[in-house]
Amino acid sequence: MDIAVIGTGYVGLVTGTCFAETGNMVTCVDIDEQKVKKLSSGKVTIYEPGLEKIFERNEKEGRLKFTTSLQEGIKDAKIIFLALPTPPDGDGSADLKYVLRVAKDLGGLLERGDYKIIIDKSTVPVGTADRVNNTILQSLIERNIDNPQDLFDVVSNPEFLREGVAVEDFMKPNRVIIGTDSEKAKKILGELYAPFVRQGNPVIFMDERSAELTKYAANSFLATKISFMNEIAQLCERFGADVDMVRRGMGSDERIGKRFLFPGIGYGGSCFPKDVQALAKSAKQAGYDFKILEAVMEVNENQKKHLLPKIFSFFNNDLKGKKIALWGLAFKPNTDDIREAPSLKLIKELAAAGASIVAYDPEAMINVKEEIGDMITYAENQYEALKDADALVIATEWSEFRTPDFLKIKSLLKKPVIFDGRNLFELYQMEEHGFYYESVGRRSIKI
Ligand code: UDX
């Protein structure tokens, strides 16, 4: 099938590349000339494991093209994906200006006899498919086109891509949600997604509004799970229980499930914070006070600061002149994304208290440098960060931090002190090696 993807950000690029991988002809459109130039020359513009390889192959084989022209991009396409940014506006709602602008432009380009399906891929508030539909209709009416609704259908098909495993999530989705009442669109999209659900996972058809809400409900529920566990971790510390045990005990109940029960120093990224806020906001606009979501956000903000009192208390509230080694800057492993990353909050608070920070992250240092520059020092590797530091703080659970050389850590740090925001190490290990060790929801190990 011929497909156009409008917007070559994270979602657009993964979507376009993965559809090309199953043999479709994909044209990606972006207004950013530099980006289009780079992509056309075979270079991927985001970091995502596994993407580069299939991107290069499909580009070389002519199934993946790039252009800045919307007209050229959609010329042959039967299916048009909108993967445009929906940043939070001033009050936390998703800003639809990019989506609606493209919808208007599409209305100026659609032609009779050339039916197209226009798909919202980005996370957009409930009712957006209707707004996109009406915007396109309006443009067609202004062009005096008869029966304009026959020219197109607007469908909601939200993405569920986790950064770091987005290619896998796209190629083998747990489910595909398709929101439309159009039988024609259902048939075409069912065929498009067939290769991705061969293992038997469902394509679930529903109306547009339910599809739009499904995305927010899924992300908000996952964020709720995390905040809930973070509160259980708070209780564990106060009751002398171990959150790892509680997590395993709870998670074995199939109704609860083992995943997304890991406490830490809060969720970050481009999705959870934005989506929880947007759902809470649109609930309010609809006259409903979604109390749980307000609490989820508040708990998460507090959790980002969870390690700070422990650090301050260890240093008797005096961090002036102290050197802190920081492992991990990205909001989670396998990404260079630092949006809403808990590490940034830690850095700001520790620096404000007079500490100097030497950080290491396998992928995200460039982005942090762009954002905060020389507020901190950047190390070449995880061990270099430790040299003469007064303590190690861990903010992201990169695999390479999980089984480090503890003897080396001890020899490089001034004192063997670790504040672990991701519970990477077993308590017995820390005891054996003689570390002062504070983590989340588990007992402290003091030396
Ligand atoms: C998420 C959703 O999973 C994906 O389906 C969606 O469409 C986009 O948002 P992503 O933001 O890439 O994906 O990351 P994810 O792996 O889901 O983790 C989100 C955050 O939750 C991270 O900050 C992570 O550290 C945190 N987290 C996750 C926990 O604190 N504990 C857990 O048990 C799981």
TrEMBL record:
Domain of life the protein comes from: Bacteria
Residues annotated as catalytic: C271
Sites where the protein binds substrate: F160, L161, R162, E163, K215, F260, L261, F262, P263, G264, G268, K332
Domain UDP-glucose/GDP-mannose dehydrogenase C-terminal stretches: 325-427
Pathway: Nucleotide-sugar biosynthesis; UDP-alpha-D-glucuronate biosynthesis; UDP-alpha-D-glucuronate from UDP-alpha-D-glucose: step 1/1
InterPro entries for this protein: 6-PGluconate_DH-like_C_sf, NAD(P)-bd_dom_sf, UDP-Glc/GDP-Man, UDP-Glc/GDP-Man_DH_C, UDP-Glc/GDP-Man_DH_C_sf, UDP-Glc/GDP-Man_DH_dimer, UDP-Glc/GDP-Man_DH_N, UDPglc_DH_bac
Reaction it catalyzes: UDP-alpha-D-glucose + 2 NAD(+) + H2O = UDP-alpha-D-glucuronate + 2 NADH + 3 H(+)
Residues the record lists as binding NAD(+): D30, K35, T86, T123, E163, K274, R339
Main enzyme class: oxidoreductase
Keyword set, alphabetical order: NAD, Oxidoreductase
E.C. numbers: 1.1.1.22
Pfam families documented for this protein: UDPG_MGDP_dh (PF00984), UDPG_MGDP_dh_C (PF03720), UDPG_MGDP_dh_N (PF03721)
One example GO MF annotation: NAD binding
BP terms from Gene Ontology: polysaccharide biosynthetic process; UDP-glucuronate biosynthetic process
UniProt family annotation: Belongs to the UDP-glucose/GDP-mannose dehydrogenase family.
Chain's role: Catalyzes the conversion of UDP-glucose into UDP-glucuronate, one of the precursors of teichuronic acid.
Protein name: UDP-glucose 6-dehydrogenase
Organism of this sequence: Ginsengibacter hankyongi
